[in-house]
Design goal:
single chain; 263 residues; seven-stranded parallel beta sheet; 7 strands; 13% strand; globular; binds NADP nicotinamide-adenine-dinucleotide phosphate
Length: 263
């Protein structure tokens, strides 16, 4: 692999796995990686969408494909092994898939948290642990986790989705320190608000429409991610202004909490 540079990686011939590739950001990342010359394997549950994605990817990357997998089933480790057997060692893993719950605090059960943690957090851990030893041995590889501002600035609610993203962030940061000197990069992506199925569903459930500076399209986020992967920065912030909210929270926590609970 050409080593990392500030101008983005050379994706030609790299094997890239994108989870949650059947729609939204994952679909765009898969298409852009394929267009950049990577052999992309899309992972998700909806096969017709994955098939359609694959037809599109193959126009620029004929060896790209897909695997159907329910990440909440605990099978992603085995799926990653079979992907490596079929396509070769994974150079780029993007843990992008996630779900949110439509249950309020009064009705949510601990099993709902378990299911969501499996889909949003443990599946990313499992996929990462499967490919990481090979990346370390080869001295290169990139893993990205797609987080959410909910993971660092949780809002009011049952907290399952923000908890899964906070866990993902802590896992990614710890591992990034451990593997950096071994040539492997781990990134955490904060995409801001995107009008995808998940983003629009959040609006339907009452999320206030974020201001323009906190909104991005999947095309914008995907382009940024491809440019930043393998670079020196752990965090990839699609809307850097949101970082200031974390500074505000740390500097004046009581004021911040009063502001959040009034919303
Ligand atoms: N949209 C936003 O405003 C926003 C903001 C911050 C962060 N994010 C993050 O961005 C990432 C992409 O989300 P998106 O906005 O693009 O949403 P999306 O269009 O709803 O896509 C979610 C993807 O995750 C897959 N997925 C969900 N549960 C799965 C499971 N159990 N097994 C396998 N795949 C599963 C879905 O595929 P199948 O249904 O086919 O399985 C789909 O491809 C997520 O990590 C999300 O948390 C989104």
């Amino acid at each position: 692999m050409a080593q990392y540079s500030r101008d983005g990686m050379d994706y030609r011939g790299k094997v890239a796995v994108v989870t949650g590739a059947s729609s939204g950001l994952g679909r765009q990342l898969a298409l852009d990686l394929a267009a950049a010359g990577a052999v992309v394997v899309g992972v998700a549950r909806r096969e017709p969408e994955l098939r359609e994605l694959t037809d599109e990817m193959r126009r620029s990357s004929p060896k790209s494909g897909y695997v159907v997998c329910d990440l909440a089933s605990g099978d992603i480790g085995t799926t990653m092994q079979s992907i490596e057997e079929t396509y070769g060692p994974v150079d780029v893993l993007i843990n992008n898939a996630a779900m949110d719950l439509k249950v309020g605090l009064r009705d949510i059960a601990v099993d709902d948290y378990r299911h969501l943690m499996e889909a949003n957090f443990l599946s990313a851990v499992s996929a990462t642990l499967t490919v990481l030893p090979g990346m370390i041995e080869r001295g290169h590889g990139v893993v990205a986790m797609v987080s959410s501002d909910g993971g660092r600035l949780p809002g009011s609610g049952p907290g399952a989705y923000p908890a899964s993203k906070a866990a993902l962030g802590a896992f990614a940061e710890s591992v990034s320190y451990r593997v950096r000197r071994k040539g492997v990069r781990v990134h955490l992506v904060y995409p801001a608000f995107m009008p995808t199925a998940m983003g629009l569903a959040a609006l339907d459930r009452g999320l206030r429409r974020p201001p323009f500076f906190a909104r991005r399209t999947v095309e914008q986020v995907s382009k940024l991610v491809l440019r930043k992967l393998g670079g020196p920065h752990f965090e990839i912030n699609a809307a850097p202004v949101i970082v200031w909210a974390t500074v505000f929270r740390a500097a004046v926590p009581r004021l911040y909490q009063r502001f959040r609970s009034s919303r």
